[in-house]
Amino acid sequence: MEKPYVFVTRKLPEETLTALKQVAEVGMWPHEEKAVPNDVLYAEAEKAEGLLTMLSDKIDEKLLDHAKSLKVIANLAVGYDNIDLEAAKKNNITVCNTPDVLTDSTADLAFSLLLAAARRIVESANYVQEGKWNSWGPLLLAGADVHHKTIGIVGMGRIGEAVARRAKGFDMNILYHNRNRKPSTEQELGAAYKEFHDLLKESDFVVCLAPLTSETKGMFNREAFQFMKKSAIFINAGRGASVDEDALVEALQTGEIDGAGLDVFVKEPIDPNHPLLAMKQVVALPHIGSASVETRLKMSELACRNIARILEGKEAETPVK
């Protein structure tokens, strides 16, 4: 009996494909840092029963209507805003993601961004490498303390809770804003729920970890930055489109806020000439929230298992509800 065909849209380590290759013939785009072109994606989707996709792949209604044999899409991410869920449902396609396995790695990265932006780590490293360090000064490259400060977390999901645990270790005052209040989290972590604008006004560090929805798109706009303290540092490890980047640039240029640490952007890869990248008070990373070797291998293995289970007529481990 001929095996079903599965296409993987970015090069993954062969060892992560073991479970999938037992039940399917696997085709894979041979590049890790170069996205699969649309024409190739359409041609592969047309013959595939399974797709293993990246957050950067646009899986819209046009593609899904074109992919008549498709049964399952496994996105190598927690997020899935790149996939038209309604169109997938209409075509009886199961959509899966990779939650849980990347929670702590992403929280590590988010808190690293906070520390790097607060203590001017990247700017200081560049200062040494550029040969500018000629003497010591009392306030040379002095940044902001993190301990005992107030962190405001927007989006208190699994990753938000993990960031809050790290903040607790720094004796920070923890505020959060979420679509729903989480009493158990409040009790466990001593976190206080705040309305959005109240959180902005009171926080020294505002950390965006919210998923991208119609409500969160562009929520960090000019008004939001105006509510923040002038000493505030904004961190985004959630979704780039949650931020009005023109408003962020303006807020940084005018001193409305003090700095930013960004792992995600509206358009990725970001244009190297983007004004955010010219600012010393901005730490910008190439969307590496979950990019530890261990975590990325676990994510790949989970995505492969999800596809294999659907093709075997079983339920996926982590279907998107």
TrEMBL record:
E.C. code: 1.1.1.26
Keywords: Oxidoreductase
D-isomer specific 2-hydroxyacid dehydrogenase catalytic domain: residues covered: 6-320
Matching SUPFAM superfamilies: Formate/glycerate dehydrogenase catalytic domain-like, NAD(P)-binding Rossmann-fold domains
Residue span, D-isomer specific 2-hydroxyacid dehydrogenase NAD-binding domain: 111-289
GO molecular function: glyoxylate reductase (NADH) activity
Family note: Belongs to the D-isomer specific 2-hydroxyacid dehydrogenase family.
Annotated protein name in UniProt: Glyoxylate reductase
